[in-house]
Design brief:
This protein has 150 residues and is of the alpha+beta class. It has a single domain, classed as Protein Transport Mog1p, Chain A (3-Layer(aba) Sandwich). 19% of the residues lie in helices and 46% in strands. Strand 1 and strand 2 form a beta hairpin. The protein has a 7-stranded antiparallel sheet with strand order 3-4-5-9-8-7-6, sandwiched between helices. The protein has a two-stranded antiparallel ribbon with strand order 1-2. The chain is built from 2 helices and 9 strands, in the order E-E-E-E-E-H-E-E-E-E-H. The longest helix has 15 residues.
């Protein structure tokens, strides 16, 4: 895995996010603005970064709370580990770290940063195997902290 990052600017929404060099990237996954995954390392879970964007239909805090509840409801044995206010791209945001169980890969850590800007809600989701979280934390933090909304 490389820790060299290059800036990816979304082709239509315009947000920018540093992504590790050599990771596969696509903007063609339904419901996702960007999906970036590390090269295959069979039989390991591939670390990934996913960005979703949606138009806000509520106040930012209500949107964040609703988004986090949806994540908890959709993952197997999800446990919230940490929840804190942060700043992303000069805007107030919220960072949460959770753990869930994947049927094939076991424990998975999901770190998400949620930020609202100019009527849009952005969620940056960094997923890694739980046993690799400590090794990849710096890389994933660099990705998330480098996010810049459109």
């Amino acid at each position: 895995m490389t820790d060299v990052l290059e800036l990816h600017r979304h082709s239509t929404v315009g947000f920018a996010l540093p992504v590790p060099v050599g990771w596969e990237r696509t903007e063609d996954v339904d419901g996702c603005a960007l999906v970036a995954v590390e090269p295959p390392r069979e039989p390991h879970l591939r670390a990934s970064v996913v960005v979703t964007v949606e138009e806000l239909d509520a106040e930012p805090e209500a949107w964040i709370d609703r988004s986090l509840a949806a994540v908890q409801d959709s993952l197997v044995r999800y446990r919230l580990i940490d929840d804190e206010p942060v700043e992303l791209g000069g805007h107030p945001a919220r960072r949460v770290l959770g753990h869930y169980v994947h049927g094939q890969f076991g424990g998975v850590n999901l770190e998400q940063c949620l930020v609202a800007h100019a009527g849009l809600g952005y969620v940056i989701s960094c997923t890694v195997a739980a046993l690799e979280y400590d090794d990849l934390w710096d890389l994933m933090q660099s990705v998330a902290v480098g996010f810049r909304p459109a």
